[in-house]
Amino acid sequence: MDRIYVTYAFVGENPAAIADVIRVEQTIEFPYELAPSWIQEEVVGKIEEISSQDKTNHLITISYNPDVAGGELNQLLNVLWGNVSLFPGVKMVDLKLPAQLLQRFVGPRFGIGGLRKLFNAPTRPLVATALKPMGSDAKTLAEVARTLALAGFDLIKDDHSLANQPWATWKDRVTLISQAVNEANATTGGSSVYAPSLNLPFDQISDAAHTAKELGAGALLVIPGITGFDSLRKIASDNSIALPVLGHPAMLGSLVISKDEGISHGIALGTFMRLAGADISIFPNIGGRFSFTSAQCLEIADRSRANLGKLNPIMVAPAGGMTLERIPEMIEMYGKDAALLIGGALSRGHLADNAARMCEMVRAY
Amino acid sequence: MDRIYVTYAFVGENPAAIADVIRVEQTIEFPYELAPSWIQEEVVGKIEEISSQDKTNHLITISYNPDVAGGELNQLLNVLWGNVSLFPGVKMVDLKLPAQLLQRFVGPRFGIGGLRKLFNAPTRPLVATALKPMGSDAKTLAEVARTLALAGFDLIKDDHSLANQPWATWKDRVTLISQAVNEANATTGGSSVYAPSLNLPFDQISDAAHTAKELGAGALLVIPGITGFDSLRKIASDNSIALPVLGHPAMLGSLVISKDEGISHGIALGTFMRLAGADISIFPNIGGRFSFTSAQCLEIADRSRANLGKLNPIMVAPAGGMTLERIPEMIEMYGKDAALLIGGALSRGHLADNAARMCEMVRAY
Question: Could you tell me if the ipTM is greater than 0.85?
Answer without folding.
Answer: yes
